[in-house]
Amino acid sequence: MRVSAKIDTIDRDVVLRLVGDDADRSRQFAAYAREALVEAQEVNRKTTGQVPPHETFVDGRRGAALETVKPDGTIVFEFDLLNDLFEWIGLTLMQHSPVLAGRYQDSHLFFADGVQVLPGEPAPSGAGEYVFLNSQPYARKIERGLSPQAPAGVYEAVATLANRRFSNVARVRFSFRSLPSGAIGDWAKTTNMRANQESRNQPGDKRFEWLTRQPAIVITLR
Length: 222
What we know:
The protein is an alpha+beta fold. Helix content is about 35%, strand content about 25%. The chain has seven helices and nine strands. The strands form two sheets. It has a five-stranded antiparallel beta sheet. Strands 1-4-2-3 form a four-stranded antiparallel beta sheet. The chain is elongated. The relative contact order is 0.13.
């Protein structure tokens, strides 16, 4: 996802400062836009810990020189913030993971609208929902604080931190999502674990969905 910072001449103070012929006014507009870009970069640096890449559109032209803007035109800076969010969540999940054999730490998965995004692949833009979850059957036990290495759990804690840090980019929340494949799927097919709700103990899709529900971090765009 790219977040846009649009600079135009709607602001009356900006209009009043643009004086001279068209070339002079375009240069003044470009100088103002550069100042606004620096301010936006600093805000992003404080929010994400780094300055994200951006693209520039001048009167709709990608990569055009700022000075070529029309006196009554627009300059748009688009920042790639969403991948910074995903990278931060993935790294923080690793850092907060309890480690014995390392299976839990290596089993964090990432999905965009239900399709897995492999490590190193860019996340597709425009998905309605992005989800991190863990494929190990004991992820729910860890989330309940049963690991001495993570007494406060992992996914809910990281979701809270991410939402505070990136609330201007997306909504990040803790939830549960079903993962019917991998280790959790194999376990769900053989376990005799019973639920308090009797309907979940009857063979069928409802029981399988309950058994494969994993702690998840769910991201939706603002």
